[in-house]
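Ticket #4471: structure output looks truncated?

Reporter: J.K.
Steps to reproduce: submitted the chain below (177 residues) through the standard prediction queue, then opened the result file.
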Amino acid sequence: MNADEILNLLTDEFGSGKITGSNLESIDPWVEVATDSIAEVCRFLKTDERLQFDHLNNLCGVDYFEPDEKKQAKFGHEPHVEVVYHLTSYSKRHKITIKVCVPRWKNDQKGQLPEVPTVSGVWKIADWHEREAFDLVGINFVGHPNLNRILCAEDWVGHPLRKDYEFPLEYHGIRAK
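Returned output as attached by the reporter:
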């Protein structure tokens, strides 16, 4: 099944309210899903006999923000955060990329992490991937069974892959910068 057929199947099943965009011409064709529908759509992608996306290759967070005010006009994106899911069906031999877009901050309040429902109940490996995206990009995966830091120390402040992250000068008495 190609990306166009997968998009049509998802749109027929969920409608344009839950399937909110796509780009099938990119190197990795992708489909955008409404944030509150991601777990439901992913469960369908995994269990539907026509799709059988049994493998979550990767899940990552991406910060679309240009901190340099001079470059912001040419940046071409409204500031937001994306969660990107790369899926493969080994039995059907097809793949697709799924995206969820959320504001950089929940309710536009700086420091309030955006929220995305967990898919760790669909693919067990999402547990680790979601923890990494939480730790490094600052995305709160609602319903995750163990959303703790995985790469940074528990007392680390901030999320290092955020474009506006300020690296600390010192950490526990050790010069960091």
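Triage note (M.O.): checked the attachment and the full token line is present. The domain at 3-175 is CATH 3.30.460.80 (Beta Polymerase; domain 2).
Status: closed, working as intended.
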